[in-house]
Design a protein that fits this description.
Keywords: Isomerase, Rotamase, Signal
Pfam families: FKBP_C
CATH class: Alpha Beta
Number of helices: 4
Protein name: Peptidyl-prolyl cis-trans isomerase
Structural class: alpha+beta
EC number: 5.2.1.8
Largest sheet: 6 strands, antiparallel
Distance between the termini: 20 Å
CATH architecture: Roll
Helix content: 10-25%
InterPro entries: PPIase_dom_sf, PPIase_FKBP_dom
Length: about 190
């Protein structure tokens, strides 16, 4: 399985596990305190006690530097003068052609992933020389991809800035820190084929 399948696809498994974990017992007859709640408080309290100071504005797609042409590995440069966006941001850096992708269509994508907190490249299909195949809207990838690739055309290079709630959330995955904002540059090798 491609690394993206492990990284992005795990988001679906994590979401299901979170949903199941959140569906704990409604049994009110138990008088024992929940050790799970106490443990969760201990884990989350330090992160909340020392929040990152705001830089005064949220970044936009125009704040992200991307160099390289369609089909080549991009160089992604993140700014240090603004906060990560709280909503999904998409921007076509290279316009493609043909019909835009819709849910249920097959996509063949190349991508590079950089994490916001440290600007490190975490994964790249460009480096492997093998595009990633997925069915758009099929839950095979993180919600940020299922939502952010709608309308992408063959030949498009699209920037996706994915907030934590559309990525891996509070749990993180495969070397991705909890509550991490993800920055992808994606090339649509083919749409619907």
């Amino acid at each position: 399985m491609h690394t993206l399948g492990r990284i992005i696809g795990i988001g679906t498994i994590a979401a299901a596990a979170l949903a199941l974990g959140a569906c704990g017992s409604d049994d009110k007859s138990s008088s024992a305190p929940s050790s799970t709640s106490a443990a969760a408080t201990k884990v989350t309290a330090p992160a909340q006690a020392n929040p990152t100071a705001s830089k005064g504005r949220e970044c936009t797609a125009d704040d992200i530097g991307v160099s390289g042409d369609f089909g080549t590995a991009p160089k992604i440069t993140l700014p240090d003068n603004c906060d990560p966006p709280k909503k999904l941001i998409t921007k076509d850096l290279v316009q493609g052609s043909g019909p835009g992708a819709a849910a249920g269509q097959q996509l063949k994508m190349n991508y590079a992933l950089v994490t916001w907190s440290n600007g490190q490249k975490k994964d790249s299909s460009f480096d492997r020389g093998t595009p990633f195949d997925l069915t758009l809207g099929g839950g095979q990838v993180i919600p940020g991809w299922d939502q952010g690739l709608v309308g992408v055309q063959t030949g498009s290079r699209r920037l996706l800035i994915v907030p934590p709630d559309l990525g891996y959330g509070a749990s993180g995955r495969s070397g991705i820190a909890p509550n991490e904002t993800l920055v992808f540059v994606t090339d649509a090798v083919s749409v619907g084929k």
